[in-house]
Write a structure and sequence with these properties.
Radius of gyration: 24 Å
Strand content: over 45%
Shape: elongated
Structural class: mainly beta
Number of helices: 1
Distance between the termini: 33 Å
Oligomer: single chain
Largest sheet: 10 strands, antiparallel
Number of strands: 12
Length: 202
Amino acid sequence: MARSEENTVAKPNEKKSKKLIKKDQGFDSYLGLQTLTQGVGKIQTDLEGSTNKFDFVPLLHFGVRFGLAPEFSLGAELAQSLPHSGEDSEIKKYYTMLSTPFNYHLRKNFVFTFFPGFFLTHISGPGGTKNVANGTGSSDFFLPDGTTTAMNYMLGLGAQYQTPYKFSVRADLFTMNTISGSSRYFNYTLGVQYHVGEFWKD
């Protein structure tokens, strides 16, 4: 009889132990779509001097997160835009973002993120020059010959809300040229993502 009671008491402890192990080994992977706005308030959009507040530049992104503790995780993300034309149709641009988010999880639905990373701008063109109007006159500007890539360091903060249906919405704000006061500017992204692996599922 004593042995039977001992086994009955031990079973809940074993089940609780398994849940704790699962939480410590949390894993999540996700795919998503974001839109990027660059240089908020820095880019003039019309002759009256208005500046940009929102741009639609689609980014496809993929990420993974590994649980460090029940409230914290460390991840890796890759975001990639498709080639698109800016003001000059002969010049193509696309962007690559690489980051390592450090995440704080609040009540399973909210995630707050700090992320360092790299922002790569790829520009391609046919080479040569193009005559462009410049005030009352015009000037010749050189076009890129082939593809060139510029890399900037970025630091950012983000917030995410995860729904019960494996989808989440997110917003990220990050600085470029962070340590340079004169050339520092801000980018932000808004997006939605689908989670392939749920985080710390009970």
